[in-house]
Amino acid sequence: MSGLRIEKLVVIGVGLIGGSFALALQKARVVKHVVGVGRTRKNLNVALKLGVIDEISHDAAQAVRDADLVLIGTPVGQMPAVMKAIAPHLGAKTIVTDGGSTKQDVIACARKYLGAHFTRFVPAHPMAGTEHSGAAAAFAELYRGRKVILVPQRETEAKALALVRAAWLACGANVVRLKPREHDEILAHVSHLPHVVAFALMHTLARRKDAKRVLGFSAGGLRDTVRIAGSSPEMWRDIFLANRLELLAAIDKYINEIKYLRKSLAARDGAAMQALFEGARDARERWLVGAKRPVQRPAQRPTQRR
After folding, report:
1. What's the pLDDT score for residue 2?
2. pTM listed for this prediction
3. Domain spans of the chain?
4. CA 281 to CA 51: how far, in whole Å?
C-alpha cells in the first residue's frame, strides 16, 4: 500500500513488541498519533517519557473509538478479554491486528469476540524479540530485516490486509504468510521449544544447593544458552498453554534426542555421540549460511519526538 498514513494508532500492551512497532512507524513517518493502553501507570509513563507513545489511556474501549489501526500487544492469555472489551467500540473502518506468538487460539477468540469486525482483523506474528520486556526495552530497529508472519483468514478484507502488510514493511520487516496450524507447529519447534530448554536448564542449575558457587564458574556457553530465560514469565506461560499440543509434540521429539544421547553416553559409545554432534554442527552451519547478522539494540535511547 503506497502512501501509507495512519492518523491514530492504538497500542494495547506497550511492551517490547508494541512499543517497537510504534517507534518504527514513527521513524518511518507514517503515523501521526500513538495512544498507549496498559495495566500499569509506571510502564505507560516510561513509554510517554521516551516518546514511544503520545498519549496514555487506561481504557481500551475509549481509546479505540476513532483509531485507524489497533495493535494488541498483550500476552496471548489476555487477548480474549481485550477483544471482548473493545469490540463494541471499534469504528466501521478500524483495523485490528496482534503480535501474538500463537495463532490458532488468537484467531478463535477473535472470531468469538470481534463479531462483524472480524473481517478487519489481521492476525500477525513478528519474529523478533529480545529477553527484555516493557516499554523501556522497545527500539525502532527491532523488526528491520526480520520476518513478520501474517495469517489472514478467508473473511479478511483485502484493504485491512494491505494496510497491516504495509505497516510492517514500513518497520523494515520481511512479510510472509502462513496458515494458522502451520504457524503454530513451526513456532513450537523454532521458538517455543528453545524457551522450554532455557527455562528448564536455568531452573535445574538454580535448584542446586551450591547454585551460587557453581554459576560463578559459568562462561559464555551457559549465558548464550539461557539468555532467553530472562524473558517474561507471564508471556511465555500463556504461549505454552495456548500452543500446548504442538509444544508437547516438540518436547517429545527433543526428549527422544536426549534419551538417545544419554544411552550413547551410558554405553560409552563415542562414535554415536560424535555422529550426533557432527550432524547438529553441520545442520547449524547450513542454517546460518547467508543468514543476516541479528539487529543489535542501539546504545542510545530513541530520540523523543516531543
Report:
1. 57
2. 0.86
3. 6-178, 182-288
4. 43
**How far is residue 212's CA from residue 208's CA, in Å, rounded to a whole number?**
9
pLDDT at 292: 53
CATH superfamily of 182-288: 6-phosphogluconate dehydrogenase C-terminal like domain (1.10.3660.10)
Which residues in the chain come in under a pLDDT of 50?
299-306
Q: By C-alpha distance, which of 14, 51, 13 is closest to 33?
A: 51
Return the CATH number of the domain spanning residue range 6-178. Answer: 3.40.50.720
Say if residue 299 is exposed, middle or buried (CB neighbours under 10 Å; 0-12, 13-18, 19+).
Answer: exposed
CB count within 10 Å of CB 8 equals: 21
pLDDT (0 to 100) of residue 302: 46
Residue among 24, 72, 43 at smallest CA distance from 302: 24
Helix (H, G, I), strand (E, B) or coil at 35: strand
Q: What is the pLDDT of residue 290?
A: 61
Q: Where are the beta strands (DSSP E) in the chain?
A: 6-12, 31-37, 55-57, 69-72, 95-98, 121-122, 124-126, 147-150, 174-177
Residue 195 C-alpha from the chain's centroid? 13
